[in-house]
Fold this protein.
Amino acid sequence: MKFLGKPRSQTAVSLPICLLIWNILQPGHSHLYSNRYAGDKVIRVTPSTKEEVYVLKKISHQLKVDLWQPSSISYVSKGTVTDVHIPQNGSRALLDFLQEANIPYKILIEDLQKALEKGSSLQAQRNRRSLSEYNYEVYHSLEEIQNWMHNLNNTHSGLIHMFPIGKSYEGRSLFILKLGRRSRAYKRAVWMDCGIHAREWIGPAFCQWFVKEALLTYRSDPIMRKMMNHLYFYIMPVFNVDGYHFSWTSDRFWRKTRSRNSRFRCRGVDANRNWRVKWCAEGASMHPCDDTYCGPFPESEPEVKAVANFLRKHKKHIRAYLSFHAYAQMLLYPYSYKYATIPNFSCVESAAYKAVNALRSVYGVRYRYGPASSTLYVSSGSSMDWAYKNGIPYTFAFELRDTGHFGFLLPEALIKPTCTETMLAVKNITVHLLKKCP
Ligand SMILES: *[C@@H]1O[C@H](CO)[C@@H](O)[C@H](O)[C@H]1NC(C)=O
Ligand SMILES: *[C@@H]1O[C@H](CO)[C@@H](O)[C@H](O)[C@H]1NC(C)=O
Ligand SMILES: *[C@@H]1O[C@H](CO)[C@@H](O)[C@H](O)[C@H]1NC(C)=O
Ligand SMILES: *[C@@H]1O[C@H](CO)[C@@H](O)[C@H](O)[C@H]1NC(C)=O
Ligand SMILES: [Zn+2]
């Protein structure tokens, strides 16, 4: 549809970038991310005894591996499926070690640099030069996403309003889209955020997809029309803007924010462990170099503080909080920080059950669902628990595709199927909200 197309000026602006990328991709020129992942591997280990757990933890610390799943080595116990990104210079040693210790492992990705360059977004971006329409089937940089938001704000003012809710640590604006038919009548709202964790690129791609679908189908699809008429959607396509930018420019597998620490050289806080709900207890780390670092105090990260302030201010009419992560194929609800059942469990549980069924009806992809603590792992200080504790009755976290075959490098060809099926789940949850739960 024409109204979603890219205006001429923007195409012109992105041309030099495309040419630059074209040059990068030419053989003989430098590689993506300065070739830093050449020879790195991602392996899957499932330790089956206490001794194997001990050994795995010990060498993980020694080799400074980057854990893909679960998000911290402290979560690893007997039977934990553990996906580990090992640096090239340590991979021989680690694999030999595992073999000698008779610990079975499986190689998920043989050469991470090659995997990254193969399905690379940059490859697809080159082709975008000739496209007049905005391409929702590639990953977009932060700058592109923000240009897209400005563009929609200018061309769809009846349905979309874009505004900032604060600034990131590095001074970038934290933009929100408010989506829905303007009405003087009281309307309930749904909050959606994507990209709390920088390397989970499918998240922001889904937030963009959701907005696109709303704009394209609200006239023809009665469910979408109902959603736009009766609700507002507050959508934050990129929560962790600094981290996301960094994952494009320097480290594809960066997870945290980019804030500095006064005593350590390591940067960043896990923006999903920084909320004032059982802050920095089980499933969070006090060490600034860990990927699940909870930060020096709750809401220390300006991104978390800005969103918490916004939700506090609007919590009376926000009925649902949805957060998009990857990867695991799960639909999670509270609690995350403890093993316990939430009050009114059956309403939330039935919403989740229907949503994963709706999702599966498209391509047969199965999602597990349940309380985050027992379905994934215990983590304290998460946004979902915080939103729930602050009175938002329906709070969910999606862990999108896949289950480890591509992991964080989900190819762009899978954006469309992933978003198509997820869309059904989100619509299903939203329609559930509009009904009174029995
Ligand atoms: C591997 O290389 C990194 C940096 O390139 C270095 O910090 C680390 O000590 C090396 N590890 C081994 C086991 O040589
Ligand atoms: C979005 O558009 C409105 C006018 O419709 C304008 O007032 C507002 O400043 C715009 N938002 C941003 C972030 O530019
Ligand atoms: C549970 O449901 C009851 C009745 O619908 C409602 O009054 C109460 O606020 C709900 N509690 C929570 C935590 O959502
Ligand atoms: C929600 O999903 C269930 C199946 O899980 C289906 O029966 C129902 O029609 C769906 N509702 C909407 C509005 O999509
Ligand atoms: Zn995540």
